[in-house]
């Protein structure tokens, strides 16, 4: 909740609770920004960690990064949905950055004949419950969502995650792709990565490297250029159909 911008509300609640209160906090990741805020609410605390504190993605998730231009993303999404739709298990979450774009992308997908539904902060609880019921049942196997709306979402059989818009941090990227590959299952995560996202290239390369994924050469070049503060324009990469081999560009399976 701290990471999602609810710090003022949390502070207001804490101020109205007796000073000898017991405070417990849980987090899937523990970035320094959230840690600094949490320390304001904790006194002489004990910290328990399960696994490494290093930012890391689930190794059961195949990560594929498509480097492209902004205007290419809608076409790439259509191609990708056609490929995914041919699979027997195809439950998919598509992440975008804004509520407005959630609605736009959902309308676009539905016009193409795909049974998609959406969830974002403007949906009331009844609407949210209905959307999630349709998604869990498989009647609407495509869910378009914002980060905030999807926090806490737990659906076991999600096979694909598509980052239509790359998130604002690597922590959010790892949270997003973690919607698949649950309970020791495998999953696949796609990311459309544009020159606008170049400042995140180095962190993304680090995440991919740690998870034993192949690095898209265009992404590697973008990370290299970003380190020196040099702008670079990149074109789109090939589709998933052109990269079936293990050594294919932009993909690799985690160990």
Automatic annotation (TrEMBL):
<keyword id="KW-0067">ATP-binding</keyword>
<dbReference type="GO" id="GO:0031047">
    <property type="term" value="P:regulatory ncRNA-mediated gene silencing"/>
</dbReference>
<dbReference type="GO" id="GO:0003724">
    <property type="term" value="F:RNA helicase activity"/>
</dbReference>
<feature type="domain" description="Helicase C-terminal">
    <location>
        <begin position="76"/>
        <end position="223"/>
    </location>
</feature>
<dbReference type="InterPro" id="IPR027417">
    <property type="entry name" value="P-loop_NTPase"/>
</dbReference>
<keyword id="KW-0378">Hydrolase</keyword>
<dbReference type="Pfam" id="PF00271">
    <property type="entry name" value="Helicase_C"/>
</dbReference>
<dbReference type="InterPro" id="IPR011545">
    <property type="entry name" value="DEAD/DEAH_box_helicase_dom"/>
</dbReference>
<dbReference type="Pfam" id="PF00270">
    <property type="entry name" value="DEAD"/>
</dbReference>
<dbReference type="InterPro" id="IPR001650">
    <property type="entry name" value="Helicase_C-like"/>
</dbReference>
<dbReference type="InterPro" id="IPR014001">
    <property type="entry name" value="Helicase_ATP-bd"/>
</dbReference>
<protein>
    <recommendedName>
        <fullName>RNA helicase</fullName>
        <ecNumber>3.6.4.13</ecNumber>
    </recommendedName>
</protein>
<keyword id="KW-0547">Nucleotide-binding</keyword>
<dbReference type="GO" id="GO:0003676">
    <property type="term" value="F:nucleic acid binding"/>
</dbReference>
<feature type="compositionally biased region" description="Basic and acidic residues">
    <location>
        <begin position="246"/>
        <end position="255"/>
    </location>
</feature>
<dbReference type="GO" id="GO:0016787">
    <property type="term" value="F:hydrolase activity"/>
</dbReference>
<feature type="domain" description="Helicase ATP-binding">
    <location>
        <begin position="1"/>
        <end position="48"/>
    </location>
</feature>
<keyword id="KW-0347">Helicase</keyword>
<dbReference type="GO" id="GO:0005524">
    <property type="term" value="F:ATP binding"/>
</dbReference>
<feature type="region of interest" description="Disordered">
    <location>
        <begin position="234"/>
        <end position="255"/>
    </location>
</feature>
């Amino acid at each position: 909740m701290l990471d999602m911008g609810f710090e003022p509300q949390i502070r207001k609640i804490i101020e109205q609770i007796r000073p000898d209160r017991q405070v417990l906090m849980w987090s899937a990741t523990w970035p320094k920004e959230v840690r600094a805020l949490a320390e304001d609410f904790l006194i002489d605390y004990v910290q328990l960690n399960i696994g490494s504190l290093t930012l890391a993605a689930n190794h059961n998730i195949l990560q594929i990064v498509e480097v492209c231009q902004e205007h290419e993303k809608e076409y790439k999404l259509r191609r990708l949905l056609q490929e995914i739709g041919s699979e027997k298990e195809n439950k998919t979450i598509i992440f975008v950055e804004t509520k407005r774009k959630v609605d736009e992308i959902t309308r676009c997908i539905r016009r193409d004949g795909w049974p998609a539904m959406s969830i974002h902060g403007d949906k009331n609880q009844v609407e949210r419950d209905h959307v999630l019921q349709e998604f869990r049942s498989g009647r609407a196997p495509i869910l378009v969502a914002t980060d905030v709306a999807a926090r806490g979402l737990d659906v076991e059989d999600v096979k694909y995650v598509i980052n239509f818009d790359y998130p604002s941090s690597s922590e959010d990227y790892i949270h997003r792709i973690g919607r698949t590959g649950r309970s020791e299952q495998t999953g696949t995560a796609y990311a459309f990565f544009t020159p606008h996202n170049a400042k995140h290239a180095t962190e993304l390369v680090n995440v991919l490297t740690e998870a034993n994924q192949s690095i898209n050469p265009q992404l590697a070049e973008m990370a290299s250029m970003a380190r020196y503060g040099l702008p670079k324009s990149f074109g789109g990469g090939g589709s998933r159909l052109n990269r079936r081999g293990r050594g294919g560009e932009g993909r690799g399976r985690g160990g």
